[in-house]
Amino acid sequence: MYPRFDLTNKVAVVTGASMGIGYGLAKALANAGAMVIVTARSLSGLEKLVEEIRAEGGQAYALQMDVRDVGRIGTALEEARRRFGRIDILVNNAGLGANHPAVDVTEEDWDEMMAVNLKGLFFCCQAAGRIMLRQGYGKIVNMSSQASVVGIRDHAVYCASKGGVNQLTRVLALEWSGKGVAVNAVGPTFTYTPGTAERLDDPAYLQNVVDRIPSGRVANINDVAGAVIYLASPASDMVTGTVLLVDGGWTAQ
To answer: Does residue 192 have an active-site annotation?
Structure first.
């Protein structure tokens, strides 16, 4: 018996899938065989993604869910369970990022980021966890960041939120892993997406970033997807409560 990375017949939910890393993760999970339920605040942002997955021979279904609306999280995931019979994988990708010197952070800045990056993520874990615990099986992958373990200037709130993601991941793993539900996190470095292109296409900014990455480049979405598929697959059945850093060595320094 060899390790299996195949996700055939698994039902996966990806939050924040309308753009960026979430968009790519949904396609990668579908390519690995999963039936993918993609969620975002608006269904209109998911139409193209669903079409692309289906055109490539995959299975996808769009579901409106704003992770800031705790009540909607529960009803949306229960709707997904009723429609497809189970939820095997949750990828908690929905998140916000912002640059603010700490002295300029407002209460609104703090509350907005925490509502998505930490509060919303927790209640997605809780809603999916209730379903998975009844099933006796599940894989939860939380999107963290290298900024959860090292400080990044002008990212006080973001770093705090992602540090919280790591701690939630550990506690949920302790509570649920003995009941068949593994909980892990993936922590990428700077990753090139349409949303980060404006900064990373600036040669000076890019060089400043790459100088800190021993691998000599920023990440791409496939780098992140490889880690997510591993943690979502049977190959990682003995892995829980960990943060898998996809950072090219940034945090090894």
So the answer is: no
